[in-house]
């Protein structure tokens, strides 16, 4: 082998050794750096997948979770607390745990039922609305006539009744009573109720008649009743002074009727007056006249 060939061979071997060394160094660096990156990535992924440990007894920690995780934690807490319980104990625990929601649900259900029922009751037609004045013992008043009245006109069913047997009205004492209690509903609300047609009839004694006539809570009969009905009850009509001191026919004396005697009002002289002027008031007023006095009149049409 010549010197030139030997020199070339030596150079080639040297380059080969250098290349191998460089590759080994690169591989060594790659081996040292790769695990660190891989390990870091694995830790990050693991931290993402792992859910934080939560103290399910701590409500603040529960509220920091998402809705789904919060529900899962609550279920885990209930399951943990019920461990070892019998079925009866588990039922009692769940009932106690959710009692707030159960009570709220029942209240909402009651409201949802009560509102439409109340609307339905208040929307039914009024079969009769009456007011009894100056009974000394309101609790002793016998109102059983209402059932007979409803049967008489076949009004049983989808009808409502309104009544008040506790009203006290006296012309001689009302100023004193009103001064002692200026917000007394009997002197403030009753006239407005009558004006708005709430009551169909008023049943009263002489003191009540005098007060209602003076305040014109009831209507004068000559203008209120049709001529044919007025003529049939004319012998029973009683007068009283109106607000101007004019003596006007305001009421019908029903003292001798079985109806009045059966009411047990606590007084003997009983009068019937009419405080409402709506179509319903007129119809029910005629019904009461026919029912009490047995008149042969049309009750289904207004005056």
Automatic annotation (TrEMBL):
Keyword Membrane: yes
Protein name: Uncharacterized protein
Ranges where the record places region Disordered: 1-62
Ranges of compositional bias, category Basic and acidic residues: 37-51
Transmembrane parts of this sequence: 102-120
Keywords: Membrane, Transmembrane, Transmembrane helix
